[in-house]
Design goal:
The structure is a homodimer.
Chain A: E1 2-3, H1 15-20, H2 24-39, E2 45-48, H3 50-55, H4 59-71, E3 75-82, H5 86-99, E4 104-107, H6 117-122, E5 127-133, H7 140-143, E6 146-148, H8 157-162, E7 168-169, H9 170-181, E8 194-198, H10 203-212, E9 218-220, H11 230-233, E10 244-246, H12 250-253, H13 255-258, H14 266-285
Helix pairs in contact in A: 2-4, 2-14
Chain lengths: ~290, ~290
C-alpha cells in the first residue's frame, strides 16, 4: 500500500480528519494509522512517497507512520528516488534508514555505481530498488533509447558495424547494471537486497527485466489509479509466483471515493480494495 | 558556494560551534550564516546539498540558511536531484520552492518530461538544472552508453544499418532532450530557466554540451575538492564568458583545514579561497 497523503486535490484526506487537527503532521499520521490498522493483516509492506511528506512539511508524520507500521510487523519502502555520489549518497542512506527509519528505499542510478555503493556496503540489511522502467508515458523519452556499450567512440558507421554491436533499450542496460552490481550480494532464499522498479503499465518490459534480474525483487507501481490491472503484473513474478511487489497508492487510500462510501469509512474501503486486489493478483498467479 | 554541512568526518564544522549549541539546526545555521556573511559580496549563489540537512534532521537549518541568503541578495540552488512524475513531481516542486524557499533546484530526468513538466508549467520564475553528465568517475556506467533514437525496435543488424543511425553518448541525448524541452521557454537576456549540470571533471563533455544547450546555464560542480581546476571549467561558458555557474563546496567550507588556520577562522579562509577561485576563473575566461 502506497501512502501518499494529499490534502489539496480531488483525491484527498477526508475532511473530518483535516478539521479535527490543525497540524498536517497530526492529520497525516492519523490518516495513515487508520489505513494501516485496517489493512495490516492483508499486506506485507507500505510505501510512503517522500514528496508528499516534504510538501506538507510533515516529516514527523513520516517517522510516526514508519514507527507504527513496524509495530504492526510491516516493512517500509521509502519511495524517495534519491541519487547522488560518495559522501552525499551516504548522507541520503543515513537519513533514509537511520533518521526516518525505513527498511528499504527507491534509488535512481543515472549516476552509476558511485551512488549505489554506499548503500550496498554500509546497509546490507536494507533493501534497494533501482528505477529501471518507470510507469509513466514519457519514460520512453530516455529509457527507451537504443543503446550499446562500446570501449571507444566509433568514428564511422563502418567501425560501428565492425564491432557488430547489439542495440538494446537503455532500461535494459540499467537492468543489466543492477545484475552486475548484485553479483556478490548475499541471498536470502533466492533473493538479494538489490531490487528494481518496473511500472505495471509496461507488462512487455516486465517480462524482459524479470529474466535479467532473476534474483531481484521487482517493485511494481502503477496498479489501480495509473490504469494497470492484475494481468499486467504477472510478468514481474518468477515461475514460482515470487519476486513481485505490487503497489497501489491512490487506488487504496482514496477507495472510498470510487465506492461512494462516506469519507469516514475510508479505512473500510481501503480494506475492501486490497482484498479485491489480492484476489485478482492471486488468480492471475494461479495461487 | 556549496553548503554541505558535515559533522562526522575529517571535513567538519569547527568544534567550537558544535560545542556552543546542542541542536544540529542551530550549529548548521550558525556555520552557514558566518560563511555567507563573510563571502556574500563575492558570489551570486549558494547551493545547499539537501542530503546533509536530511542526515542531521536539520530542515529548519536549511530554511533559515535560505532566508538568510535571500537577505544578503543571494540566489539559492537547492541541490536535491529530485525526480518523479505527475502530482508527485508537483509535490517536490512545491516543497522545493514554497516550503524550503529555494530559487532553483537540480533534477534527474531519467523519467522523461513527465517529471519536468510540473516545474516548467507552474514555476516559471524558478530555475531548474537537469543532470546531464555528473562529475563522478562512474557517471560513465550509464551516461556514456552509445545510444540512438529509433521509431521501432530493429529486429536485425541489417535493419539498423538501413536506418543509418548515428550513435551518441547517452548524456548527449539527455542534453538534446533539455534543448527540446526548452524550445518555448521565455529567455531573460539570452538564457532561459532550464539549465543543466555537467561536472567540472569532464571538460571535453562540457564543450560538447555547451554547444547543444546554447541558452541554458550550466551548473558546474566538482571544482576544488573533486580535483577540477579553472582551466577545466572554461568550456562551460559561452564565447562572451557567460552561462557557467561554478560550484565548490568542501573546498570553500573547509578551507581552514587546507590553509592550516585555526578553526575559528573558517570564514576568513572561505573568503580567501573564493577570492583565489574567482581570480583563477576570471583569468581563464580572460576577464
Amino acid at each position: 500500500m502506497g501512502l501518499d497523503p494529499r490534502m489539496d486535490k480531488e483525491e484527498q484526506i477526508p475532511q473530518h480528519l483535516v478539521e479535527a487537527y490543525d497540524d498536517p503532521n497530526k492529520i497525516i499520521t492519523e490518516f495513515n494509522k487508520i489505513l494501516i490498522e485496517k489493512t495490516c493483516d492483508l499486506l506485507p509492506i507500505i510505501k510512503p512517497q517522500m514528496a508528499f511528506y516534504e510538501k506538507y512539511d510533515a516529516l514527523k508524520a513520516l517517522k510516526a507512520t514508519i514507527k507504527f507500521a513496524h509495530k504492526k510487523d510491516l516493512l517500509v519502502i521509502l519511495d524517495s528516488k534519491r541519487n547522488d555520489i560518495g559522501p552525499t549518497s551516504e548522507a541520503y542512506a543515513y537519513s533514509t534508514f537511520k533518521v526516518y527509519g525505513a527498511d528499504a528505499c527507491t534509488l535512481n542510478a543515472y549516476l552509476g555505481i558511485d551512488g549505489i555503493r554506499p548503500y550496498l556496503e554500509n546497509y546490507r540489511e536494507n533493501g534497494l530498488f533501482i528505477l529501471v522502467k518507470t510507469s509513466n508515458p514519457s519514460s520512453r523519452d530516455f529509457q527507451n533509447l537504443f543503446s550499446a556499450r562500446l570501449d571507444e567512440i566509433p568514428d564511422s558507421k563502418t567501425e560501428i558495424e565492425k564491432k557488430s554491436i547489439k542495440l538494446e533499450r537503455s532500461y535494459i542496460h540499467m537492468a543489466r547494471l543492477v545484475q552486475i552490481w548484485s553479483k556478490n550480494l548475499q541471498k536470502f532464499s533466492e533473493f538479494h537486497n538489490l531490487g528494481v522498479v518496473v511500472g505495471a503499465t509496461y507488462p512487455h518490459e516486465l517480462k524482459i527485466i524479470r529474466k535479467i534480474v532473476k534474483n531481484s525483487f521487482i517493485l511494481i507501481p502503477g496498479y489501480g489509479a495509473q490504469g494497470a490491472q492484475a494481468k499486467d503484473i504477472k510478468n514481474g513474478f518468477n515461475e514460482k509466483g515470487l519476486g513481485g511487489i505490487v503497489n497501489s497508492s491512490r487506488g487504496i487510500m482514496f477507495a472510498y471515493k470510487k465506492k461512494n462510501y462516506p469519507p469516514e469509512n475510508f479505512g473500510k474501503a481501503a480494506r475492501e480494495e486490497i482484498l479485491d486486489m489480492n484476489e485478482k493478483i492471486n488468480k492471475e498467479l494461479g495461487i
